Amino acid sequence: MTPExxxxxxxxxxxxxxxxxxxxxxxxxxxxxAQRIKVSSHTLSNGMKILVHEDHDVxxxxxxxxxxxxxxxxxxxxxxLSHYFEHMMFNGAxxxxxxxxxxxxxxxxxxxxAYTTPDVTVYTDxxxxxxxxxxxDMEADRIRDLNFDPKIVESERGVVYSERRxxxxxxxxxxxxxQLNASAFVAHPYQWPVVGWASDIEAWTMDDLRAHxxxxxxxxxxxxxxxxxxxxxxxxxxxxxxxxxxPRQDPPPPIRTKEPEQIGERRVTLVRPAQLPILMVxxxxxxxxxxDTPALTVxxxxxxxxxxxxxxKRLVDDGQQAVSVQMPDDFSFDPGLMTLIIQVRxxxxxxxxxxxxxxxxxxxxxxxxxxxxLQKVRNQFSADFxxxxxxxxxxxxxxxxxxxxxxxxxxxxxxxxxxxKVSADDVKRVASKYLTAKNRTVATLIPQSKESAQ
Amino acid sequence: xxxxAGALIxxxxxxxxxxxxPEYQRQVFGNGxxxxxxxxxxxxxxxxxxxIRGGEESDPAGMAGLSAVTAELLRSGTxxxxxxxxxxxxxxxxxxxxxxxxxxATVLTADFLSKDSDRMIDMLADLFVRPSFPExxxxxxxxxxxxxxxxxxxxxxxxxxxxxEPFYFGAKHPYGQPxxxxxxxxxxxxxxxxxxxxxxxxxxxxxxxxxxFDTKAMSGKLGILRFLGGGEAYAWKEAPVPxxxxxxxxxVDKPDATQTYFMIAQPGASRTSPxxxxxxxxxxxxxxxxxSMLNDELRVNSGLTYGARSEIQRDRLPGANFxxxxxxTETTERAIDLALDVLKRLREKGISADQLASAxxxxxGGFPTQYLETDGQVSFVLGxxxxxxxxxxxxxxxxxxxxxxxxxxxxxxxxxxYADPNLQFCLVGDASKIQESVKKYAPKMKxxxxxxxxxxxxxx
Lengths: 454, 460
Fold this sequence. Notes:
The structure holds 2 protein chains of 2 kinds. Chain A is α+β, with helices and mostly antiparallel strands. Chain A has 2 domains: 11-243, Cytochrome Bc1 Complex, Chain A, domain 1, CATH 3.30.830; 266-395 and 407-447, Cytochrome Bc1 Complex, Chain A, domain 1 (2-Layer Sandwich). Chain A is built from 16 helices and 12 strands. In chain A, strand 5 (111-116) and strand 6 (121-128) form a beta hairpin. By secondary structure, chain B is of the alpha+beta class. Chain B is built from 18 helices and 12 strands. In chain B, a hairpin with a 3-residue loop joins strand 4 (96-101) and strand 5. At the A-B interface, helix 3, strand 6, helix 4, helix 5 and helix 11 of A face helix 1, helix 3, strand 4, strand 5 and helix 5 of B.
């Protein structure tokens, strides 16, 4: 086994099956640039947007359905419902009963997964083109006529609880990340975990489920992306036949609560049985449509992307104080967090690591990046763009994310240009503006006494 | 419902019923180096992979992790470049370089833009031929790796797989010695230098390049490979598949665990076993996909777990055939009983023609996007063929081989591989709560503490 392949930041995402974390990270690394991606777009009369990208390299299709509903649309008492619902969407509708979605899909050569974030619930289908019509039939069936069998509701509750135990309760990174979010937000729904609090998993009811389905699962609240061995025309014919008759509904109500500006540092410390300490530092940052987003992306890449990055060099290589450093940045509808995640070396005091990280942030805010570094980050970003386009699945995810979060899939064709425009002064400015003491939440996991954790 | 689905199944008769590897050029130089060039031009990128035969099985006794540490240290300095220069150069190209080790090979992978191919070839040649293994870097990498290996114990789902190796294969078997803090602390700079000198030689090397490039020009540039020293070909180790006279159970105690993670194993097959295609189909049905028997019973029907699966290891030597899942501490016994029931059902009832047809469609339907879509996938598949001494027929004839598997053939494989009465159980969980209830599964049971250094297991 190879230890370095192990840690992929996937804390904000909860998925139906646990094996596509690495893929998601790669596909979302992404976009912009010289190679233009062509997409045809059509909006059905019921409001569902259909985006098609043709790629005939392999005789397969990726179909992604982005529903604009996630844990931010929940309330205390029903946290985790969006993610739970993601599971329920596979448990039977009117035409295709319990288990049939998976049975039909697999016997026709396809496979699927799904993931939920604070903002969206995404269904990901991969199949040979021969299964295209079946997939439209099954997706339409479950959007229109999902069935709620009380027995399945109970057994799926157990599945989700087991997922929570694995990703949070028995996982120090997951546990600390949950505490970090719960401390960083005092008002906005981003404070609760996507998988839900344990007491809510135990308590949600059939009525909660029905209300959630009615709130989020309407064609006008969904973007469908189809990539691969298809034509725009055949997709439109199928979409009109299967999806267009489904009536539109009211979309989820807007999120009223805005997170108030943070007015002082917050800290949370866990003492747990563990081999190594963990340090997380989160800063409030604006929503993805904000003009500062590209500069923040450059900033996080300068700090942690690659072994020549500032924090890898300082903490992992020279200082030998950390095993790994990461600063994933992701799209969000509402103002979110940019989080530094460090696995601290055994026997090292996390406070030293924290101090060193702040010194590096301070240096970036004061001096900015040098020209070579800035060029390096641009090159890394554009190479990642091509990597995100190597598979039809990566393309479907990327097209959908740009459409849903930035309002236009075509923004992916200017993403590299937007990164190129970021200057050293921009980086200095956003580092000074966001990486401040009063804007941060610090979470630390300390291994329990020496006897219980060597 | 049945009508619509039935009509679609008829349609699938027209699906691509074969796959082919892209055309590639394979040459063998006088020094033993194999070079495979497989152009594939959908994006302006390339993947180069260097496969060095040996891998984990070539780690000397007591020094597990030597092959991996050697590979990791290639980028820590050469006679021409410092560690820092290497990292800067790779990041400046936007390239991704990684060095991993599996049971039979070290795999160095570079994923880069085609326009940088000259720079990357120069870099890879330097890393392969002239690493200097500076003493300070050796100490750093070893210390970091020891911490990484320790941190696996914070993730019980991963830890159970590591404990499983010495437990199932035994410490003398080439697959029974995972790298741990104990073995890594024995590694010296000299051992690394010696390993590199002996193993990174022409006769052990296969270079596979896939992506957007001109074959003729690339073949010319990589002609430099002929100047590499041939050295001595690695002598593969031999070891029989472990056989036990009774069931055994290892319980690794993690007192804070709220779930039990477990594996149940019996002898499997090698990567090149003549049974590999029937086994691929049987494993798909047993625990290799969402609707598999195991996942259906333990997850979908009973809600005991987030996932239950099975695997037949595909390595050079015959490995394990195992079930793997987890459940909350309180339902440990119920989940193990249920997993054993599913295994019994497979053994007693076998599989039906409908199930077999579904498995065939599933394996074939996913194959193009799993193995042939990207330069990274194609170069991996081609390297796999080199390491295991297979040829392109392995892929090009795969669908025909799948079609040829009959229900009888599949059921014979089940009788051969899923009928061992002496199952081997490896568990990580809260021993104080489950120790009594799991005794019944094996006449021999041992409890180990996750707090002990390393991943060694007690003698049975």
